[in-house]
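Students often ask what a holo structure prediction actually looks like on paper. The answer is less mysterious than it sounds. You provide the chain, you provide the ligand, and the output is a string of discrete structure tokens encoding the 3D arrangement of the protein together with 2'-monophosphoadenosine-5'-diphosphate.
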Amino acid sequence: MEVMKILDFVTGKTCLAGLLGDPVEHSVSPQIHNTLSSLTGIDMVYVPFRVRENDLGAFVQGIKSANVIGFNVTVPYKQRIMGFLDHIDEEAEILGAVNTVKNDDGKLCGYNTDGEGFVRSIEKETGTTLQGKKILLIGAGGAARAIGIKAAIRGAKRITVVNRTVEKAEGLAEDINKIAAAGADAAGIEDFKKSRAIGDYDVIVNTTSVGMYPDVDSSPLDDMTAFEKGKIVYDVIYNPFKTRFLLMAEKMGCKTLNGLGMLINQGIGAYEIWTGIKVSEEITRGMHEALAKYLENTRG
Ligand code: ATR
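The corresponding structure tokens follow.
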């Protein structure tokens, strides 16, 4: 029986997708996409493509000429890949970064599903939308940009970007204000801490790496006493599952979410673009549980 399964695993009809990056060894995208294929019954395998910088052009040519249905893009190519594409979706263009490419018979189209991954994660895991919400965004890098711009598109009422480097927070707030009516503003993280304005927000999101393994004793904010019960606190980190930041918020009675939901949902967004199917809520939940268990086991 096992041999029969292996015989059927990859056939002449199987389509191929993958992850472009360097390095790619630690990514869990292969686990996400191969599990999705198995759960949705789509005949597709997903593999890592580690490509050196000088080979990016040759890689793109190869993808166009082979029957690869699409690929994800990670560090360090999320911006550079844009110069090789035939079409770029509006949101990816605004973000200035592509994490998903679809191969349409040799024409490559770029998308960014990171912001969508965050929004779907919030909506599915809390049952609320970002419409009319006041959001505190900690950090001003790529993840903050994807989340901030998407939150503005989804009707957030106010977005405050706080960052160690205040100039970057100001730049992101300016860009958010250009694309949507959300009143975005910015502050340095230390000034924000002194202001004690944290209680003004409905959703607080950490997009920095502060608190990520092995830096587990750190938190982007150290005083959470003004956090109120029922508010949503999101950390894009998923190693550990509960950062110090989330543990403090949990103590205050907040609804806490880690970055696993965003990771899975950006993957599902990409999978839907390549295959044209809609992944069900049930499969999404199953994926979430399975990946959490997998990470717990492989972390030792
Ligand atoms: P990503 O793509 O994951 O968002 P990034 O673009 O490198 O990563 O952004 C990292 C973010 O984490 C930035 O906001 C960075 O702050 P600076 O702009 O001041 O560099 C923030 N960050 C990283 N390490 C930090 C630390 N030790 N303390 C505070 N902020 C930190």
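The chain has a mean pLDDT of 95.
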